[in-house]
Design brief:
Strands 1-2 form a two-stranded antiparallel ribbon. It has 2 domains: 87 residues, Arc Repressor Mutant, subunit A, CATH 1.10.10.10; 155 residues, GntR ligand-binding domain-like (Four Helix Bundle (Hemerythrin (Met), subunit A)). It is mainly α. It is elongated, with a radius of gyration of 26 Å.
Length: 258
């Protein structure tokens, strides 16, 4: 007799919902992850050998190996195969965030427009922080990229690469690690987007060079509000133009298909 038959009032459904039991490998991965993130196993130190983990945990060798693979994918350990190998603890860098974002953008078909909106939401504040926190070394990097940016108008590929490089240099000068990681994560998907490669004109490139020069001047002057305002104006203007060009090209493609 089922539980629902014992109690007629509950005949519409089972009294006990299905119970999800975690995989043994996930439990072990969770325990090791906690040890790493709490600092009890420091970066550069080795995890216990696979045989030792099997003995201590009571799990099968396959479950231990699966737990280690999970941690490796997360960027928390680096594993060397062979008798002299093992698993060494490391902390994931910003590149791991970028890899995850690229996979998310590509697998979900995220629109270029959405990525540009993200930049408009984040980058003005980064520019303001860059004005507050920049060093002379930061300024030298931004000036160097900007100079090459000015000279790249005739080479669209180089122009677009230097454009993103300059924005990333501004982000790094902010000294906000979380926002820098976010910017680095969305920069490459923007550069990879086919729409981004297509949306440019000579006028857009000239406007971008002038805008970068104005923003750089504000960062040099350590003017938070002005750097914020100029970056917001620059990105909003580009997003508006890009949106209009994309709509026009989609309309042209639709007309040609007919």
């Amino acid at each position: 007799m089922s539980l629902s038959e014992d109690n007629p009032a509950d005949a519409k459904g089972p009294m006990v919902e299905p119970i999800q039991v975690p995989k043994a490998s996930d439990i072990l991965a969770g325990k090791l992850r906690d040890l790493i993130l709490s600092g009890r196993i420091a970066p550069g130190e080795s995890l216990p050998a696979e045989r030792e983990l099997v003995s201590d945990s009571g799990l099968s060798r396959s479950s231990v190996r699966e737990a280690l693979r999970v941690l490796e994918v997360e960027g928390l350990i680096a594993t060397r195969p062979g008798r002299s190998g093992g698993s060494t603890v490391r902390l994931p860098g910003r590149s791991s965030v970028a890899r995850s974002m690229r996979l998310f953008v590509r697998s979900h078909g995220i629109r270029l427009e959405a990525l540009l909106e993200c930049r408009v939401a984040v980058e003005p504040y980064l520019a303001g922080l860059a004005a507050q926190n920049r060093t002379e070394q930061d300024l030298a990097e931004m000036r160097d990229i900007h100079q090459r940016f000015e000279q790249s108008q005739g080479d669209v590929g180089a122009y677009k690469r230097l454009n993103l490089d300059w924005h990333l240099a501004v982000a790094r000068a902010s000294r906000n690690e979380v926002l820098v990681a976010l910017m680095e994560a969305i920069a490459q998907p923007i550069f990879d987007a086919a729409d981004y490669q297509e949306v440019t004109t000579a006028e857009i490139r000239r406007d971008a060079i002038r805008a970068h020069a104005a923003i750089l001047h504000s960062i040099e002057a350590q003017d938070f509000k002005q750097a914020y305002s100029r970056m917001e104006k620059h990105l909003s203007a580009y997003a508006t133009v890009a949106r209009r060009l994309l709509v026009d090209r989609q309309a042209q493609s639709g007309a040609a298909a007919k």
